[in-house]
Each structure stands twice: as structure tokens, then as C-alpha cells.
Amino acid sequence: MKIEAMTEKYERWLGDESRIRGRADAVCFPESFEEAREAVSHARRAGLHITPQGARTGLTGGAVPEGGLVVDCQGLKDLELREGPVLYAGAGATLTQLHALLLKEPWVFPPNPTEESATLGGMFGCNAMGIDGQRTASWVRKLWWLTAAGEVWEIGRGSYVFDDSGCALPDGGRLSCETFESSGVLNGLVTVKQMDLIDFLAGTEGQLGMALAFELELAKKPDCDWGVLYFLPTDPAAMALCRAVAQAENSGSVTVMEYYDRAALSLLSEGRHNTAALQELPEFPQGAGAAVYVELAGDDPDALEGALFEQLDIFEGLGGSEEQTWAASERYEIDRFRKLRHVVPELANGKTDSFSQAVPGLTRLSSDLKGPAEKAEDYLEMYRGGIAQSGAHAVIYGAAAQNRFHVNFLPETPEERAKCEVLMAEWAARAAADRGQIITENGAGLLKRELALRFVPEAVKRQIKAVKEAFDPEGVFK
Ligand SMILES: Cc1cc2nc3c(=O)[nH]c(=O)nc-3n(C[C@H](O)[C@H](O)[C@H](O)COP(=O)(O)OP(=O)(O)OC[C@H]3O[C@@H](n4cnc5c(N)ncnc54)[C@H](O)[C@@H]3O)c2cc1C
């Protein structure tokens, strides 16, 4: 495998969807385990740090190199449905390829961060989640992991589990370290009691080694599903609907519940003229100040219809009407509704791009916090109040009932961006005090590493450093 010197031709490999630009000395494109091992050998010989990359769709700059060797994993793209059924997937296989393979099968791979070009390696690197709240790592049964020493570990789920003083490792050694009750504000790098080694390596953002391939578990495709978009006049009405739906008798069939605020709906309306996915949908009803998207899935059509009618009654009880409800039961229609979740951050990034024409260097900024579910209304008010007070522009969307909102800021100047950063820090402090998460699904990357570490206890920071030294004593990985 050739190691290419970094030239203009490889400019794209210096950035991701965070819009941060990095620098690198070289880039390589392994297509097999052996070639990936060669990349590690080269990095060790040349004293270069490796930044593993998938499709560079990450939102926080995790794949942005700060010098060294970029290892683009997209060539590791084997994909095969095997008996079980399980899916064998190379780290470079994309969601598009995976969904195409499963299209006619009775199986689904539930984790879906909505960005179809994302690779499984990148999803594992951030332990990405997405619309249905399913973590990537939870569906990994076996992992092929390339270590900083250039060894390939085959890790079966359940084979290596942390106890109170560390974890046995596949090379026969042992990682001796402190273990904690939870991962705290982070979504990776923290050694947690009873945690499977696979779950520990997920979310480490390419800092301890590199995923090469996975054996993935699949779920049975439900026989029927519904997607329903409810439009409401205000945030409190939307939150009341989320609460009532989550507590309804038939809430077990609810698989997705996403909230969009007024600004997100405006952004979508504004983006209609040049976004094909939006042109397939009617215009939003007049007076919509928020929307809640709910998916229901199950194998019993009557039970599912019962759940749907229960929901429609709840909506009506809150003053909603048929004109403010869009419902679909065909998969292609449901996929159109789902796309809204993807288009909001996409359009927000488009705005950042247009603002950065006037102010070069403006990067993306969005929150990825998770607070206690019972405080979702308080958090939404906190976000709303902070945005109004600072005069910032932002859109809010996310899993409201789980208090997992994304606030996507749209600053036009460095001064505005600085105000948004202050808000982010205040909100992060609140989430930390409430024992929530600051990094939930998008990774810390370069954008939020410093912010998140501010709220990590010293003992945990020491342990993160010690584990890095144990896994990667020469600092081969970034
Ligand atoms: C419009 C839009 C919407 C999005 N919505 C969501 C969402 O709902 N939920 C969500 O979670 N994410 C979302 N994302 C973010 C992104 O798609 C996910 O983080 C995705 O998992 C990144 O995959 P990737 O292949 O692009 O990884 P990259 O961006 O290339 O890398 C991500 C991280 O993983 C590391 N990495 C890459 N490959 C490997 C490997 N083989 N082994 C170890 N580490 C590796 C990188 O070093 C980096 O730290 C969205 C992105 C966009 C653009």
C-alpha cells in the first residue's frame, strides 16, 4: 500500500462536517487488515500520529488531523450477510451499502445517525446514535480491532468485561486501572465497571486504536409501522404531547419521538426550494410553532392501529386537528418524514458555510447534551431563554422525552459565536451537575474536547491518561 504525501489533491481529508480544517503529513487508503497494519508500522517508523477516518461526516472534528498520517478506512468495505443472521461489515462499509444489502431482507440494523454516507467505523468511533436512540456499539457482537502495536484483536462480546480493577485483554495481558460507576459526562474513554471491552472501545474516537471490521446483530423488521408528524402551536404544547405519548398505554410501540422547534421548521421551509427531500412533502400547516415526529412499529396491525388512535386522541385532547397531522404507513413515505431529522443539521451547516464566505474560519457549533428525562421541559426553557437573552440564532431539535435535544447555533460573526460558546459552557455545567452527559452521540472531537474535559473529575482524567498510555505507549494514535 502506498503512503501518499499530503498534497492539494487530498485537501478534503483535512476536514469534516464541523468545518474545522486540520493539517497532515501523509494519507493512506488500506483495503485489507494487512494494509491497515502496514499503516501502523509506517506511522511507528516515521514517528507520525494516526488519525483514523471514515466518511468525515462527523460534526465535531474527530476525524480532522492535527498533523501525522490520515488512515482513510473507506477501503475496508466488505459486507456480507451470514448465518444467524449476522452481518459481517468492514469498518469502511457505509450505511447506504448496509441499507441496500438489507432492503429485501426481513432484518434491519437499528442504529441510524441519518447520514447515509457515514461508515460503520466512524459510527463506532463516536458510538453514534441518531433518530431511534440505538447506540452503534450495542449491536456489535464481534469486533476486529487494530492496536497501536499493530496486532489485530478479535473481540467477542462477553469475552472481556471490566471488573473493579481493570479488564483482561485479547493479547493475554491485563489492563489494570480504576473503574467507575458510569461514564459521567462523556460517551467514551471512561472505564466503567461491568462494561464490555467492545463498549469501552466504542466512542474512543480513534485515540486507542482502530476498528477494522464488525460482526453486527440484526433486528427483525417490523411487519408494519407508522410515521406521524404532529404540528403544534407552541413548545409547551409539543412537550405535553411528548409526555402524554411516552406515558400512553400503548407507548411500547413508539420507536422514535423527535421534536422540532419553530426555528427548525422555518429553516426547513426556507430550504424547500433547493432541497429535493423537502419538495416531496407538502408545506407545513399555518401557525405551526413546533412539531413532534413519532414512529410506531410492531407486528400486529390491529394493535398498532389501536396505538395510533390512542395517540390521535391525545393530540385532539391537546387541541390538535387532522389538518395538523401527517400520517404515513408506507416505508418510502416514512423515510421522507425521517429525512427532516437529517435535513435540519444539513441546512444549518449550509448556513454556516454561507456565513463563513464573509467571515472565513467560522466553524459549526451545536450542543449534544443529555439531561435527566424528567427535566426535559426545564432544559428546553433554559435553551430557549439563553438563546433569547444572548440574541443568538439557533434551531432546536431532538429526542424531547429523553431530554436529548440538539441546539444547533447559527452564528454569523466571531462575536456571536463567542456568545454561543458561553451558553454552551453554562448548559454543559447544568448537565454535569444533573449527572447528565455533555457528549452524547456526536463525539467530542476537536470542537468539544476542551469543554467536556472541564467537567470530568480529576480521578477520571488521570485514568483516561493512564489507559491511553497502556493502550498506546508510543502515541501512535492521535
Ligand atoms: C447532516 C448530518 C446529520 C447527522 N446526524 C447525526 C445523528 O443524528 N446522530 C449521530 O450520532 N451523528 C450524526 N451525524 C454525525 C456523523 O454522521 C456520525 O458521527 C457518523 O458516525 C460519522 O461517521 P463517519 O464515517 O463520517 O466518521 P468520521 O467523521 O470519519 O469519524 C468520526 C470519528 O470516528 C473515528 N473513526 C473513524 N473511523 C474509525 C475506525 N475505523 N476506528 C476507530 N475510529 C474511527 C474518527 O477518528 C473520528 O473521531 C450527522 C452528520 C451530518 C452531516
UniProtKB/TrEMBL annotation:
<feature type="domain" description="FAD-binding PCMH-type">
    <location>
        <begin position="20"/>
        <end position="221"/>
    </location>
</feature>
<dbReference type="InterPro" id="IPR016164">
    <property type="entry name" value="FAD-linked_Oxase-like_C"/>
</dbReference>
<dbReference type="InterPro" id="IPR036318">
    <property type="entry name" value="FAD-bd_PCMH-like_sf"/>
</dbReference>
<keyword id="KW-0560">Oxidoreductase</keyword>
<dbReference type="InterPro" id="IPR004113">
    <property type="entry name" value="FAD-bd_oxidored_4_C"/>
</dbReference>
<dbReference type="InterPro" id="IPR016166">
    <property type="entry name" value="FAD-bd_PCMH"/>
</dbReference>
<comment type="similarity">
    <text>Belongs to the FAD-binding oxidoreductase/transferase type 4 family.</text>
</comment>
<dbReference type="GO" id="GO:0071949">
    <property type="term" value="F:FAD binding"/>
</dbReference>
<dbReference type="InterPro" id="IPR016169">
    <property type="entry name" value="FAD-bd_PCMH_sub2"/>
</dbReference>
<dbReference type="GO" id="GO:0008720">
    <property type="term" value="F:D-lactate dehydrogenase (NAD+) activity"/>
</dbReference>
<dbReference type="Pfam" id="PF02913">
    <property type="entry name" value="FAD-oxidase_C"/>
</dbReference>
<keyword id="KW-0285">Flavoprotein</keyword>
<dbReference type="Pfam" id="PF01565">
    <property type="entry name" value="FAD_binding_4"/>
</dbReference>
<dbReference type="InterPro" id="IPR016167">
    <property type="entry name" value="FAD-bd_PCMH_sub1"/>
</dbReference>
<keyword id="KW-0809">Transit peptide</keyword>
<protein>
    <recommendedName>
        <fullName>D-lactate dehydrogenase (cytochrome)</fullName>
        <ecNumber>1.1.2.4</ecNumber>
    </recommendedName>
</protein>
<dbReference type="GO" id="GO:0004458">
    <property type="term" value="F:D-lactate dehydrogenase (cytochrome) activity"/>
</dbReference>
<dbReference type="InterPro" id="IPR006094">
    <property type="entry name" value="Oxid_FAD_bind_N"/>
</dbReference>
<keyword id="KW-0274">FAD</keyword>
<dbReference type="GO" id="GO:1903457">
    <property type="term" value="P:lactate catabolic process"/>
</dbReference>
